[in-house]
Design goal:
The complex is a heterodimer of chains A (103) and B (631). Chain A is α+β, with helices and mostly antiparallel strands and 103 residues long. Chain A has a single domain, classed as Roll (SH3 type barrels), CATH 2.30.30. Chain A is built from 3 helices and 6 strands, in the order αββαβββαβ. In chain A, strands 1-6-2-3-4-5 form a 6-stranded antiparallel β-sheet. The longest helix of chain A has 9 residues. Chain B is built from 27 helices and 10 strands. Chain B is elongated and about 85 Å long. Chain B has a 7-stranded mixed β-sheet. A two-stranded antiparallel ribbon of chain B has the order 8-9. Helix content of chain B is 56%, strand content 7%. Chain B folds into 3 domains: 204 residues, Rossmann fold (3-Layer(aba) Sandwich); 149 residues, no CATH class; 154 residues, no CATH class. The chains are: A alpha+beta (103), B alpha/beta (631). Strand 5 of chain A pairs antiparallel with strand 10 of chain B, so a sheet runs across the interface.
Chain lengths: 103, 631
């Protein structure tokens, strides 16, 4: 996992596709460490924001990778369907994800 | 100058829909799909910008030329992710596409722009757009980049899947655009066969099924996403680095300011001289009567006092354009968000508020990037507190006249610099306090989402930067121009009636005398009162007015004016005056632009009164403190 973080930090050429088949646990998107990938389980946000995010691709079963945090530690940049979007911690903590245990 | 504030420069007819005849084409696409670049490419300067009625979403309509069809109108819809009404932008888009938006022609055809680098996600918008049943052409933008990076798409298969024609284009390079002409010409033929072969579309209104559908279509059309944006990731690793990120951010901010002040200021000064010389050159042609006075002293000088800011405004637009087009603006917002949040705003407000240190007009127009309406209005309302360059002439005059040049910290930082710095600080604190006040009262948000898409880095093109600067400049001149002209005329009449009276005896002079009891506690006399009235036009006008009133020409005899002011005002009154200017909204252009951006007179009126009351109270406190404790 540290290796993935380092690789993404220094801009490795290869995009690591994590294997999402093993055991998983439920956690909040805001709790995922940098470099890990989660699969959206559910969103619990006020109507318009939830709709907005879902239209951007934050729907159940979508894969989200944590790319980096802003220099101040918040917001965090996530990658979803190949594009990057930053969310504040309080927004990300309303998104439940399945976090897969990587080796 | 047109007679009404909303008269478009280009007359774009609103035609009813005629069977088999295409007149109005809507440009639809997600944010960052390159839709605006394409719109500019297709219409050039033949476009007009306004607000949709009742909302603050910008409406862009342009004439589409060179297609072989006459009178084609292209409507640029706001960038949207879906056709559900999740935001004001999306609501406007839905209303336009359904032909329910008053004042906007009903679209007969749709150009759907999708970024082919992110087609899998961008296709999500295709489902609801195709479900509208209008003739549609899907444009895969940036296809040159996609292919160069090893991406692939079978456009024929995609056209079959979607049941509409598909074309690869590059809006930046202008390639593949002839497909638009072919498409519109074919649709314009009276017997064009209905292209609606039966296609399977997902359930309307469900983002999850849109996404599944989009992924299915991508897979069936052998879409291979290009090698991921490693360049962007690598640049971000530096520009968003915990240490280097903020340092580079500060360097960018500093450079922008250095350039705006070191190039913008002389440019503005030179432009001002030019405008005055032009006025002087025309003056003899008008004789020496009231006509010359009205035309030159009234209209021309008044308009020139606002126009001098144009070079600075355009320069700021250029910088904001470079930041936005390159993709750095989003990173700046990301870096600034943590700090901005502590005052109740979000990261996207940072660059606009920063621009306000030069001029509030471009700052307020740049708040368009803030999607959250409450955050946007709060930013608009606090921007004029930032110390703009129009405040500097009166600050410098009063400081030079009343503050001794005493060194405080060596030769470089003296008492004068300290007073100047405090005035900057005062505006900043007022902005912070007002932002907090607004966000906890009238603009209170139940929850403030901050969703910031980080586009890939791109090199801005001269063409798009040039168009942006010209477009923003035109909006400023058109919106502010009429209001400025009206205010100038009223001020001229007030200061010249009755005829042949000195300024002190004119209507405005009497008004100055009339308000003297109100401003007396501030340490102001009737001359300052007149200056406060005339500078409603623009802050720096007060220097000229005081020059006239004290019988000195400000340009040549500023020493004389300083001595006269020292003779006439106390230190308390002088400092109260600069504090008044730190807070008061003495700027017609700002009022006009706030009206445009908030689409109502309510907000500029509220802002003017709030800042005026604050200015009065702060000036009163300043004068009383200096009077009682220092003297």
């Amino acid at each position: 996992m540290v290796a993935i973080a380092l690789l993404s930090f220094f801009g490795a050429e290869t995009e690591l596709e994590p294997d999402l088949s093993g055991a998983w646990k439920l956690s909040l998107l805001s709790e995922l460490p940098i470099g890990t990938t989660g699969v959206v389980e559910s969103l619990d946000l006020p109507g318009e924001i939830q709709h907005h995010l879902m239209h951007m691709g934050f729907v159940p079963e979508a894969r989200i990778t944590v790319v980096r945090r802003a220099p101040a530690g918040d917001p965090t940049v996530y990658s979803i369907d190949g594009f990057e979007v930053a969310l504040r911690r309080d927004t990300a903590s309303a998104i439940r994800v399945r976090e897969y245990e990587t080796r | 100058m047109s007679s009404c504030c909303n008269t478009p420069t280009i007359d774009i007819p609103v035609e009813p829909r005629v069977a088999g005849r295409i007149r109005n084409v809507a440009l639809v696409g997600p944010p960052n799909s390159g839709k605006s670049t394409l719109f500019n490419r297709l219409t050039g300067l033949r476009q007009k910008v306004a607000n949709y009625p009742g909302v603050t979403v910008e409406q862009r309509v342009g004439r589409l030329n060179g297609i072989g069809l006459p009178d084609l109108t292209l409507i640029d819809l706001p960038g949207i992710y879906g056709l559900d009404t999740y935001s004001e932008d999306a609501r406007v888009a839905v209303e336009v596409l359904h032909g329910e938006m008053p004042g906007t022609p009903v679209p007969d055809a749709i150009l759907l722009v999708l970024d082919s680098l992110h087609l899998r996600r961008q296709l999500m918008l295709a489902a609801p757009v195709l479900a509208l049943g209008l003739p549609t052409l899907v444009l895969l933008n940036m296809s040159d980049l996609m292919e160069a990076r090893g991406g692939h798409i079978d456009t024929l298969a995609l056209a079959q899947e979607l049941g509409v024609p598909v074309a690869k284009i590059s809006a930046v390079r202008g390639t593949g655009l002839d497909s638009i002409g072919h498409f519109l010409n074919r649709k314009a033929e009276p017997d064009a066969p209905p292209s609606a072969t039966r296609i399977e579309l997902p359930v309307v209104g469900n983002p999850r099924s849109y996404r599944q559908w989009a992924h299915g279509v991508s897979n069936r059309t052998k879409y291979k996403a290009p090698v991921s944006n490693q360049a962007t990731r690598r640049i971000d690793a530096i520009l968003l680095h915990p240490v280097w990120g903020p340092l580079i951010f500060l360097a960018v901010v500093f450079t922008v300011f250095q350039v705006v002040f070191s190039i913008g200021q002389p440019l503005s000064d030179g432009f001002g001289d030019l405008l005055n010389k032009a006025g002087d050159a025309v003056a003899p042609l008008l004789g020496h009567g009231w006509l010359e006075s009205l035309a030159i002293d009234g209209v021309w000088r008044g308009v020139a006092s606002v126009l001098v800011f144009l070079p600075q405004i355009l320069l700021l637009f250029l910088f904001i354009g470079v930041l936005e087009d390159s993709g750095y603006l989003a990173r700046a917002a990301l870096i600034a968000d943590r700090v901005m949040r502590s005052i109740g705003l979000n990261g996207k407000a940072f660059i606009p508020l920063l621009s306000a240190y030069a001029c509030a007009v471009p700052a307020i127009m740049a708040t368009r990037t803030i999607e959250n309406k409450r955050d946007r209005f709060a930013t608009i309302l606090v921007a004029p507190f930032m110390t703009c360059s129009a405040r500097l002439p009166i600050y410098m005059l009063m400081i030079a006249a009343f503050i001794p040049n005493k060194p405080l910290l060596g030769d470089f930082f003296g008492l004068r610099a300290a007073v100047m710095l405090s005035l900057y600080f005062l505006g900043f604190v007022a902005a912070l306090a007002t932002a907090r006040l607004l966000k906890s009262s009238i603009l209170k948000a139940s929850s403030a989402p901050f969703i910031l898409e980080l586009p890939q880095y791109r090199l801005p093109t001269f063409r798009s930067l040039g168009l942006r600067v010209v477009d923003r400049g035109r909006v400023f001149l058109r919106q502010a121009g009429t209001v400025i002209l009206a205010v100038t005329l009223v001020l001229w009449i007030l200061s010249h009636v009755p005829f042949h009276a000195a300024l002190g005896e004119s209507v405005i002079g009497r008004l100055g005398h009339f308000i003297e009891p109100v401003i007396r506690p501030l340490g102001f006399n009737w001359k300052i009162g007149i200056g406060l009235l005339t500078s409603v036009m623009a802050r720096e006008v007060i220097v000229g007015t005081l020059g006239t009133l004290y019988g000195a020409d400000p340009a040549t005899q500023s020493l004389g004016l300083q001595a006269a002011l020292r003779h006439d005002l106390t230190l308390g009154g002088a400092m109260a005056l600069v504090v008044f200017f730190a807070f008061a909204l003495q700027c017609t252009s700002t009022l006009a632009i706030v009206r445009r951006e908030t689409n109502s007179w309510k907000w500029p009126a509220l802002q003017f009164c709030y800042m005026g009351v604050l200015a009065y109270l702060a000036a009163l406190a300043t004068n009383q403190i200096i009077l009682n404790f220092i003297h």
